[in-house]
């Protein structure tokens, strides 16, 4: 091969290599930019069982949107100080976005506003009502509370004595559920009393058990899964001794709550679509990272479920984490 032919061959090789790189530039850049989004989800309780279905939705969204998600629980129930510390830690550790179920609006307002200056923050299930530009994924909790109260009134043959179990009232979703329950129950002539329930599950159980033995209430209404489970366990244990017999209604699911619903210790529960709650929270976080336009507020569906309809196909998907 002559020197000129060698030069021509090398030139053609360079032209071919250059063309290949230009034509495949997007592929190489895409590979470089394909690192997963780092998203931290900060829950508001220490319970992982109550968030099983939410985590299913989160895990599916992580696969769909190329995200790596850290799901972080608290060491104690509704601990605002710990939640703030975790929020600051995850930002410092390089999270691309934060999804948080705020313990309350008062303590979390300033830390979340500060966080928003650097990365996207999405509220899940509860929100900080005073931050107008905070994207929020939840059901219409006031409607959920009202729907549960309507079920109570429909199932009451006469005017009764109802106890509303109050817990975590600083949390926006609990406040809204409470408002919905109260507005609807006050349209009837039932006598209403209020029980203050501690955050700790054992203390909640002990408190409800004690109140059941002294109160004249014939119906209990719980506004969150932890309180609902504690109330139903207390009722079940008292039934073994031949005392206490109340109707129990509440909002939220755990495996124990579902079991007690099946046993008819619990009459009816309100259940939000927790799978969608987790899925949409991660999708919204990814959209915010990419500066896509979002609606800012996404309402998910809910259902009122009892012993008779709990195995309907739609309700099974809400109650049982592995039925999709």
TrEMBL record:
Key words, A-Z: Membrane, Transmembrane, Transmembrane helix
Signal peptide: none
Name of protein: Substrate-binding domain-containing protein
All copies of domain Periplasmic binding protein, residue ranges: 40-290
A Pfam family it matches: Peripla_BP_4
Organism of this sequence: Caproiciproducens faecalis
Localization of this protein: Cell envelope
PANTHER family, per database record: ABC TRANSPORTER PERIPLASMIC-BINDING PROTEIN YPHF (PTHR30036:SF7), D-XYLOSE-BINDING PERIPLASMIC PROTEIN (PTHR30036)
Transmembrane annotation, as ranges: 6-23
Family the entry assigns: Belongs to the bacterial solute-binding protein 2 family.
